[in-house]
Design brief:
71% of the residues lie in helices and 0% in strands. By secondary structure, it is an all-alpha fold. Helix 6 (103-120) runs antiparallel to helix 7. It starts with 8 loop residues before the first helix and ends with a helix.
């Protein structure tokens, strides 16, 4: 008579936790569940609900697992940038560039504009605004849009490494690490600046011809004009918010104040602003917090730390490589959520947090799927310019390797 193994309740919970965790991260890696219409936000919510349903995370603990400071910061920055967009800020930049710049000046303009804006605002949202700008400018100047679209994607990732508000993973790290906004900027701002110059060098070598390839198109009314007065209030609010960040006011509180000020209006329907918010990203974050809490409760993250310790993961160089590889497998936000439990146990946690921010962000430039910003650029420009995997990878590989080396050496030197 064969012996049928009997599993304890604890063992079943552990099996369920591993299954939910691995399945969720599989969807995060490939983008969708095979054969079904389950995307990353959907997988995050399903995984979170299952963690609670199987008793791995208590219902009250599920709510406390969600870092609402990060959610509020991300949501508020989305509202601020949406208001800037609707007020015509990006249209005004496009009009000025088209009227005043020559084609040979467009590449560095796109790189540094994308990088600087992404340093203080969420890079994914900046990409949404910059793609129409690039398509309009290149059409009016008569140049091919490919190098400039690649510049938007790569520069927005590089520039966003500079501050806590540059991208979602930095917001997470800022919340968990307690590193101040100005301290974060002082350590990673130089990495972003050096990275933007490297980006310019590599793209200019890959695309040496910047002269018009077809006659410039003069299109009356192709760039929407807005009254400059509509930018006065958003401009003042932005300056106040940035001053608050630099003065040490908690970023979530300062961003929420700015968003609230932006919503006080007599002319714009609030739904126009809400329609520009990436609700799926907010849902993804909420579910991911609960999944990681379940993984921690089940001891999965402790097992990963135990496995990684012999690799010398506390070394800045090794941790950079591990973070970069994992970020390209499962995307940078899930990678940061998984690795964040390891950093507090490092000999130098402060350095560990900065390396995690630097590597997870810069690794996003390796492939099209390396970051959401890249995907946004590819999808938004598809009707005008098809960006292939090869087109991206031939510049993404050297940009990623060189910026990671520069970032690692800089953080090692100043530690």
């Amino acid at each position: 008579m064969s012996h049928v193994p009997v599993f304890t309740l604890g063992e079943l919970k552990l099996f369920a936790a591993f299954s939910i965790f691995l399945t969720s991260y599989f969807v995060f890696a490939v983008g969708k569940f095979p054969g079904m219409k389950i995307d990353r936000p959907g997988a995050a919510i399903i995984g979170a609900v299952l963690m609670v349903a199987f008793g791995i995370v208590r219902p009250d603990a599920a709510l406390s697992a969600i870092d609402f400071k990060t959610i509020v910061l991300l949501f508020s920055m989305m509202l601020i940038v949406a208001t800037l967009h609707l007020a015509g800020f990006f249209d005004g930049i496009t009009r000025w560039v088209v009227e005043h710049l020559r084609p040979r000046h467009l590449l560095p303009t796109v790189i540094f504009l994308s990088g600087v804006l992404s340093a203080f605002f969420v890079n994914d949202i900046i990409c949404l605004a910059m793609v129409p700008f690039v398509l309009t400018a290149t059409r009016r100047m008569g140049v091919k849009p490919l190098p400039y679209l690649l510049a938007v994607a790569t520069a927005s990732n590089i520039g966003s490494v500079a501050t806590i508000t540059g991208n979602p993973q930095n917001m997470l790290i800022g919340s968990y690490s307690g590193i101040g906004y100005l301290v974060f900027l002082a350590h990673l701002g130089p990495v972003a600046l050096a990275g933007l110059f490297l980006d310019w060098l590599i793209l200019s070598k890959a695309f040496p011809t910047t002269e018009p390839t077809h006659p410039p198109k003069v299109e009356t009314g192709s760039v929407e004009t807005r009254e400059p007065v509509r930018l006065v209030k958003p401009g003042i609010v932005i300056l106040i918010v940035l001053a608050g960040f630099l003065a040490g006011v908690p970023p979530a509180m300062m961003a929420a104040f700015g968003a609230a000020m932006m919503l006080i209006t007599r002319t714009r329907e609030p739904r126009q602003v809400y329609e520009e918010v990436d609700w799926g990203l907010l849902v993804f974050f909420a579910g991911l917090f609960v999944i990681i809490q379940g993984a921690q409760n089940a001891g999965i993250t402790d097992d990963l730390l135990h496995f990684a310790r012999p690799l010398g993961i506390q070394s800045a160089g090794v941790f950079t490589v591990v973070t970069a590889v994992l970020s390209n497998i499962v995307s940078n936000v899930p990678a940061v959520m998984l690795l964040k439990s390891m950093v507090p146990q490092f000999t130098n946690p402060h350095l560990g947090w900065l390396v995690l921010a630097m590597a997870s962000t810069l690794a996003g430039n390796l492939t099209i799927t390396g970051s959401v910003a890249n995907i946004i650029v590819v999808e938004r420009s598809r009707d005008v310019e098809e960006i292939s995997f090869g087109d991206y990878f031939r510049v993404g590989l050297p940009i990623t390797v060189l910026t990671l080396v520069v970032g690692s050496v800089w953080l090692w030197w100043i530690k």
